[in-house]
Structures are given as structure tokens and as C-alpha cells.
Amino acid sequence: WVRGTVAGQKATGAFMKLKSVAGTRLGEVKSPVAGVVEMHEMSMEGDVMKMRSIGALDLPPGKVVEFKPGSFHVMLIDLKAPLKAGDKVPISLVLQDKAGVRQTVDLRVPVRALTADAMMDPHDNHKP
Predict the structure, then answer these.
(1) Contact assessment for residue 67 and residue 57, using Cβ atoms and an 8 Å cutoff
(2) C-alpha closest to that of 95 among 58, 126, 64
(3) Rounded to the nearest 5°, which phi and psi values hold at 69?
């Protein structure tokens, strides 16, 4: 899912769960809605939360790697237009296997309201 924005907001985050059967490396993320797309990692250093860009991320075989607020996430920077709940954002994941074969996976990721509960699982069909 992608966090919605307000007018004038130039960046937001995209969150997802990824699982690779054979193990692969996520080397790049692209989207036409943003001028810059980066993978980031957040971590605590003492009492300070730090965010840094990462160039690539290994997806170990059979394990879920979660992109979520406060952890790994995708930053959509220099947004070309506001994103509102109900929109679908095209995002492409560029993966590379151990043999060096590249594959692009194209997604249409739903936008949630800016105020949406960050912990809500978009695949959970249970209603409150």
C-alpha cells in the first residue's frame, strides 16, 4: 500500500510484504508517479531514529521481507501529483536471481488515506 498525501506534499512511503521462493535480490524500484524512488531502512541509533537509502536488498528463499513504517520501505520522492485513497500507483520491482538474470515485476499498489492505520494489513479481509 502507499500512504496518501495532501496538496503540496512531495514524498510518501510505499509498504509491502515480499517473499521469494528461490531467493533473489531487489535491486531497484521504479514508479512514474515520482521523480525519485528509493528503498530506505529505518533503525534506532541510541535514542535517534535514522533513515538511510539502501541500494539493494536480499530476499532470502522462503522468508517474508516486510516493508513497513519504521523499517524497510520505499520512498516516492518528488511526487508529480497528490495521491488520494482509492488511487492505484504503478510500481515496478527489478529483481535479480543468483545467476544474474533480471526480472521486472509490475504492481498496481492501492493508496490508503493519509490517516489510515499503518498496522492494518491490506490483505486482511476482516472488518472492524
Answers:
(1) no
(2) 58
(3) -55, 135
Give the separation between CA 5 and CA 121, rounded to whole angstroms: 19
DSSP state of 72: B
Per-residue pLDDT of the chain (128 residues; tens, 9 = 90+): 999 999 999 999 999 999 999 899 999 999 999 999 999 998 888 888 888 999 999 999 999 999 998 899 999 999 999 999 999 999 999 999 989 999 999 999 999 998 765 544 444 433 32
pTM of the entire structure?
A: 0.85
**Residues 39/68, Cβ–Cβ less than 8 Å:** no
Distance (Å, whole) CA 86 – CA 127: 17
